[in-house]
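Hi C.,

You asked whether I'd gotten around to modeling the 340-residue construct. I have! Everything is below, sequence then structure, no commentary in between.
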Amino acid sequence: MTDTEVATATEEQAPAPRRPWWRSRWLRALSWTGTAGVVAYTLIRLLGLETGWLLVTTIAFVPYFAAAALAAAGVQAAVRHWTALAVTGAAVLALGAVLLPRVVADETAEAGGTEFTVMSVNLYVGQTDLGKVVELVKERQPDLLSVQELTPTAAETLSELGLDELLPHSILEPDWLAVGTGLYSAHPMERIDTVGRDGIFFQIGAEVDLGDDAVRFMAVHTAAPASVERIPLWEKDFEDLPRPDGGAPWVLAGDFNATLDHANMRGLLADGYTDAAEATGEGLQPTWQPTEGYLDGLVKIPAVTLDHVLAETGVAVLDWEVLEKDGSDHAPVLARLRLP
């Protein structure tokens, strides 16, 4: 056998070079699967395609998903899957562009009208510490208070604790379970009949006389999209929320059961409202988290932002706070505003 034949035979018998572990087919397939999921979720968010219970509920967690997608991109970089990394990275940047305005304060609108403070509190079907609610009102002195999940017993207790003395004007629709709603004011007000209970919960609107100015205020509590049957009611509630019409400015405050990532909330803002939290660069502060979790509390649903104060465009947002919650799954929120 010649030297050439020996060399050829040796080459034929030599094993093929092993593929590096980071280029294994199963790892690449897993990487592409993750990228596909990130892209699909991002497109649903960007295009407002969330329909049905599953997508509506999961789209509430965009900030967490963006963080998870960024971590996935880091793994793809570690395993040198550059093509998938590029696609995942583009999706992460798109989600980042969506979230960035929530942490960058807007320029305050020029407004020379009356300054007033709005507070919203969800009473957790009357189970929150009602004494602490009254203490908050004493301390923060809101001009307008939106109360959700107001039971008849809670309404009586709040009155006994002195809330009527702090905010002497009120329009109340107490009811059992989470249905009841209340609107309290330091100023005279007149109920607006066009705003009522068309969904599951009462929602109360009123025109408030602030002295030199008037404002229209609504205590909001939209249906919770907690089941397939509730989704149409939730969507209808958003359709029925008042839009600016050239009259006294609207301010909406309460439990919207939606985040700024839901298409119906974005549509409402586009119709002429400013979210107070986003305007002040505090739009990622969560306001809601279930009080109980799974597996004896070891696993909890991540906290999200469901409570909002929306001010009609032109109303200046001076300040925003998420206050400490006590016994409720919702944190009270506070906004300081000034009319044009």
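If it helps when you're writing up: The chain has a mean pLDDT of 92.

Thanks,
B.
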